[in-house]
Each structure stands twice: as C-alpha cells, then as structure tokens.
Amino acid sequence: MPDEHDIQARLKALRETYAKQLPDKLIDIARQWAAMQRQPWDFAQAKSLHRQVHTLAGSAPTFGFDTVGQQARHAENLLKAWNNEQRTPGEDEIAGLTGYIHSLCNSLDSNPIPPSAPSPVDVVSTCPPERRLIFLIDNDEALIGGLPQLLSHFDYQVRVFRNAGGIDEAFAKERPAALIVNPGLDDTQQGGTALVHGLKARYGQDLPVIFVSTRGDFNSRLQAVRSGGDTYFVKPIDIAPLVDHLDRVTQSHTSEAYRVLVVEDDPDLAAHYALTLRQAGMDTTILTRLEDILTTLAEVRPELILMDVYMPRCSGLELAQLIRQQDDWLSIPIVFLSSEADMEKQFNAMRIGGDDFLTKPIDDRHLVASVSIRAERARTLNILMVKDSLTGLLKHTKIKEKLAADASRASRAGEPLVFGMLDIDHFKRINDRYGHLCGDRVIKSLARLLQQRLRQSDGIGRYGGEEFAVVLPGCSLAAGEQVLNQIRAGFAKLRFRHGDEEFSVTLSAGIASVEQFRDAEGINRAADEALYTAKRSGRNRVKLCQAPAATFPENG
C-alpha cells in the first residue's frame, strides 16, 4: 500500500518546484522569440520554440497554471502551422505571435500562488495481507474443530465465535475479509441471519457472508439471501468449493498492483504522473533514456506503457513502432499522452501502434481511470493467453519459459534456484471413482495451496493433467525440499467430499537445482526423474535429484 502522506508531500513539493522554475521558462521563451525576430526566419529555431511552448501547454495546467497553459497553446498552434507548411510568417502573423508570447509572460499574474494539492485519487489496487482473517460464527463443535485448520493451509486465519458475544469488539480491532455464519445459532434458523443483518447495517453491505447450515431447503436459503448472504453451503462442507468462493470474495483485497511504465521527457510531468498512479496503488517506473527501452521492458515487464508523443530524441510514434517490432511486446497497451488536439493525428498514432490517446492536460482522476481500465483489460487478456483455465496457474510452455529465464539469471549471478515437479498420487482412481468434476476440485485445491504457500516471485505452473511445476529462485536444494515437504503434508491433511463419502489425497515430488545443472533442460529432466523415483519408492514423498554438482568457471 503506498504511503499516502509521503506521496501527497512529494506532489506538493513537485508543484512548488514547478512554480519556482516557471518564471525562468517564460523568460527563456521570450528571449528566444526576441532573438528570432532580429534575424532571417530560421525553421530549426522555430521548431525549437514550438517544442518549448508545446511542453508548457501540456505541463502548466497539470500543475494548476491554467492561464499559462492556454496562452502557450495559442502560441503553439501558430508555430505548428508555420512549421508544418514550411513557410515564413508575414508581419501580421509575427505580430500575433508576439502578442501571445507577451500574454504568456504576463499570465503568471493570474496564478501568483501554486495550486493546492488535489484530492487523493481512489486506490485501485492493494498489496495482499499475509493471512486473510475470517470470522467463523457457529456452535457446531465438529465444524469449528476442523475448518480453521483446513483453511489455514490456504493462508486464511480463522477466529471462532460460538455466539454473538464479542463480535463487535473484534470488529473494532480488525475487520475480517469475510464471515462464515451458521443461520441456526439459536436453533430457530433465525439467530444467524438476524445477526448478519445487524452486522451489515453497522459495518457495511459489502461485507462478504457465507452461510453454512445442515438445512438446504428453499425457505432457509431464501432467508439467508434476504439477510445479505453471498452464498450458502450445506453441511458437511467440501473444502474445495468453499476456498474457491473465499478466494473470489476476498480477491479485491489481494490483487497485484498494475505495472505501468511512464515514458516522458519532461521530468516534472513524468514525476507527477508516476506519483499520481502510485497514489492509486499502481507500480510505476519512469523512463527518460529512450535507448534503455528494451532493457527496461524486460526488467519491469509492464502491463501498460504511458508515453508522450513529442520527445526530442525520437517521437513516441517511432518508439511505439520500435517496441512493436519485438514479438514479446506486440500486445502490450501503449497509451499516448500529448497536447495534440488534431483527431486525424491521434487516429494515426493509434494506427501506428497506440491503443489510446489522452490529451494533455489530463485530470488526475481521469488519468487513473484510463490507465487502470486499460491495464485491467491487458491483465485479463494476458491471463487467458498464459494461464491454465482450470487452475489459474502458468501453462506448460510458460512455466518452462520462466524456468529457462530464471535459471539463466541464477547461473550468471551464482545464485541458488530450485525446480520442482509435483504429481497427485493415484489421480486416475479419483477420476474413476468420483468423476472428473471431483478430480478437478482436487487439482484446483492443490493449485490454491501452491499459490498460498509460495512467494510471488516463484513460478507455479500446471505442467499437464495432475502434474505441476514450481520454480523457486534464490532457494537452496535443502530449503526447497523443506518447502515442498510442507506443501505435501498440508495437502495430505485436506479432506474432500463426494456425496456422503470423505477422502484425502497425497502427492509426490522431485526437485533439482541450478547448482547441479546449469541449463533449464537438464534441471527439468533431473526433477522429472526424481519425481518418478518418489513414485517408485512408495509415493507421498519428496525426492532430491542425486546428480553431482555442476562445475562452474571461476568467472562464469
């Protein structure tokens, strides 16, 4: 979560700095125009002057100097017409531009004080808490004796209440991510629903509520809906669909920040855009050295590029074409920023490689909304392309690509890395006995467990069928063995239901490290062989690859 006070202070300092520098910028424009009038018309100087007033027209209103921006826009339009037509202006036209520049230099009188800080923009993404808090309100000893432990495997922290006592005090300390409530707390099938109705009235209608009951009749479900329940489970509860629903209703609290790359040659505007987007919870990176674009893209892997159109070294349109030449960046959204109001030029920019065009000056809230909408669409499309539809994990080819990239990086840096292959034991028996839908629930449960237990920097993929793969950068072989054994033990404790029958499942795993094999193919093959050793040894265990350590050159 970004530090709101720090960002507001930095935005305020940025506005004050701009206000102090603005008089000198206006003096430079006036001096350059005066020098141009003392000699024959020079198109190179006219282009330079146009660049200065164009930048001013876009930046001044962003920092609250609207009159300065308006006068700069008038001067910009005249210079742009002369430059585009490659013609020398007449005396009347020169007198007109002189008037605009005179008004521009005097326009600070309309903005003697830097504007106050704008209202904070809405946060559109937050960092995930380590464990999501759930309030379980039930007097069923069997449920409260087992459900908290099961949910803990998926990084949910459960606090149990056997009645309504103490709930308001608990809310005062920490608001839960969701409630799980028995509607029959007082044996009338009314106590729980009445409690939920009051809690929603006091703490907000957006509080997610899951009802769990021994009754599944129409009237009981209808009463739960009327009291504000989001879903309804009949006991005994199957953990897999319950976790699926908890993941959905708490997802807004755990979404990863959008990654945005700001490409802007004006450092003041770049800093303002970056701070505004960071204030809204986005992860922003500023690029001013255009030569570093491909390196920066590879390091940051942004979900959206916010790019100025007019830049001195090369235009935004040229840079967009350069980016689109790389297959890895064909689908990344590029949103152009410019004070260019000509619709034909805007459409041309989008034909060349842009996805949207925002006209400077742009309101901060409009900027956040436009960027977040585009980034969300890009993330959704990317998920469809690289993620497995059942589990949400990386597809087979993508997890192998991550292994190749991370193993190469670890090998160069001399850092540890572990690759693990996991397989659900006797999975065919599960499908044959309980059906493929039940088998899918088992697969999804293991996927959720991997996502909750591993780090965001780790790679997790569905390798195929009931087989999974994990890439653990910065992890030694011993640490990797410990992590996968913890996951194996946690998975074995999960209880699944099919009709009246309850069952558990185990997994086997094999791991190898970059210390043993420098290339991804070797690591992959070794982990796969270790997995089959675990299967042949009796299953429900983690086996290490026994290959000798690789020999590394001293300077490799």
Which second-level CATH architecture of the largest domain applies? 2-Layer Sandwich
Stretches with pLDDT under 50, minimum 5 residues: 112-117, 122-130, 549-556
Mean pLDDT: 84
* Distance separating the two termini: 39 Å
Strand content: 15-25%
Task: State the name of the first-level CATH class of the largest domain.
Answer: Alpha Beta
The helix/strand class is: alpha/beta
- Strand numbers in spatial order across the main sheet: 2-1-3-4-5
Helix content: 40-55%
The major β-sheet equals:
5 strands, parallel
Count of DSSP-assigned helices: 19
Number of structural units classed as domains: 4
Q: In oligomeric terms, what are we looking at? A: single chain
Number of strands: 17
Shape: elongated
CATH topology of the largest domain: Alpha-Beta Plaits
Radius of gyration: 30 Å
